[in-house]
Amino acid sequence: MASMVVTRLMLAGLALSLVGFLPTAAIGTAAAQSGAQSPPSAADIQIRDRLIADQEALLNVYRCRFGIDAHAVPGGCTDGAPARIQERVSVAAGPASGRCAQAIASGLQDWERCAWEGFWDNRNHNPSLADAEAQALVERIWAEVDVEGKPASPPTTELAPEGATCATAVEEGVAVACYQHSRHRIRRLDPFLHTLLHETAHALVALHPSVQACRSRSNPRDYDACAHNDIFRCVADHLFVRYAGIPSAGVCGRAEQQYIPPDDADAWASTELDSGGRIAGIAAYTHNRRFPYSDSDDWLFVRCAGGRLEVLLSFERGTVAGQRLYADRVPVAHAFLPGAFFSWDEAQQNSFTDSNRVRRLWGESAGNSAVFLPTRDQESFVNAAANADSAWLMAAVEDWDGTDFGVFFFGLDGASAHVRPATEACGWTWQ
Is residue 430 included in any domain, yes or no? Predict the structure, then answer.
């Protein structure tokens, strides 16, 4: 199976409004009916508010994924997921103090060389992008990152032929890319991610007051030095960290989110569905999908809708298909793992999963963005998920050509309290 080396998900995509719309009268009912009991404590109120937020987040994910009552989602849906709250990037007061702070004074781009040292030739961090991939990433960045003066729409981007504008000789060599402000366009002679991120940073700050002030510099060298200023370095570093997965160079001030999800944002949650029935779910704790899906928020759902129980994996980005070889089915191998699993070496992990995994052909969704567990496996699967002896669920999903679509890990702590009510809504009886 694939290497068990996986990376922690960024779950900021589930950051949603904290204003609860679900009925809350049942919470703390005893305190409301009995004057002898003390009012709820601050801790009780915090637990209640977090429960409401978790329920709303789960319901909004469900609405966007399946196009049901999507109008009720705060901020709307984008590509089948709740709209992500933008990160506001700004420069902190005081000088930079990170690992590349000293490089700022050395030269125009020395700080960036410091930031990328060891990553230039690492294709896991610096892959080659086709035009369509590059444009999709720029549009995604525009939706997720905010900065003062950001142009309203994302720029276009293209790979330019050799000899085109941007391929000009400069003292350090050849300028391989440029952001053309007048056309709001990024042109690149090489396809690599770091080049795109550098020029996207220029596009993001093109109308920032500190960069606009540089336009009064008549000497191109003076303008260039001015435009590579604190806010540009701050935004560029933020993009490198978020979209290439490299350590921060420390030249950025701070990235402020309007809402930071709680530490246990990947905990189980459950709620009633608008149309009746119930759903329980959890976001993948880790997965091994690579760029551009490395921070995709992917879910395990157990839902009762219309009297029918379904267990499914739902993917935020990318599509999976098995129809070419498996007649509209997707091969998925799943295994329930003990809590000590991640403390084992890779050979022990592989031996355990090889001995305990169950490989089945799961059903495809119409849009190839979800797969459904076969009905015959539901009882054993749900029992294992609710069993206190199981700490993790591993699901290895194959694509149509037999390659790995992704290996996903879901935490099972607390699953029973949410999975059981969902199955009981469909008539299941637990011992």
Answer: no
Phi, psi of 183 (to 5 degrees): -105, -5
Residues 112 and 241: beta-carbon distance below 8 Å: no
**Do strands 156-159 and 185-188 pair parallel, antiparallel, or not at all (unpaired)?**
parallel
Q: Are 266 and 285 in contact (CB under 8 A)?
A: yes
- Give the closest residue to 200 by CA, choosing from 249, 149, 148, 156: 156
Instruction: Answer whether 193's CB lies under 8 Å from 125's CB.
Output: yes
Least Cα distance to 282 among 174, 357, 392, 368 occurs for 392
**Residue 385, phi then psi, degrees to nearest 5:** -65, -35
**From residue 280, how far is each of 33, 185, 263, 412 by CA, in Å?**
30, 44, 19, 12
Per-residue pLDDT, 27: 25
- State both tokens at 88: 């506001």
Q: Which two tokens stand for residue 90?
A: 């700004």
pLDDT tens digits for range 321-335: 876 666 778 999 999
d(CA 402, CA 397): 9
Q: What is the mean pLDDT of residues 163-190?
A: 75
DSSP secondary structure string for all residues of 156-201: EEEEPPTTSTT--EETTEE--EEEETTTTEEEESS-BHHHHHHHHH
CB 418 within 8 Å of CB 268: yes
Q: Name the amino acid, one letter, at 218.
A: S
Amino acid symbol at 116: W
Do 246 and 120 belong together in one domain?
Answer: yes
Tens of pLDDT, residue by residue over 348-381, are 888 998 899 999 999 888 778 889 999 999 999 9
**3-state DSSP call for residue 59?**
helix
Question: Alpha-carbon distance 320 to 364, whole Å?
Answer: 8
Q: Looking at 288-406, list the stretches that DSSP marks H as alpha helix, in order from N- to C-terminal side.
A: 323-326, 346-356, 378-386
CA dist 260 and 222 (Å) reads 39
Same domain membership, residue 175 and residue 300: no
Q: How many domains does the chain have?
A: 2
Q: What is the pTM of this model?
A: 0.53
Show the domain range for 248.
87-257
Over range 403-409, report the average pLDDT: 88
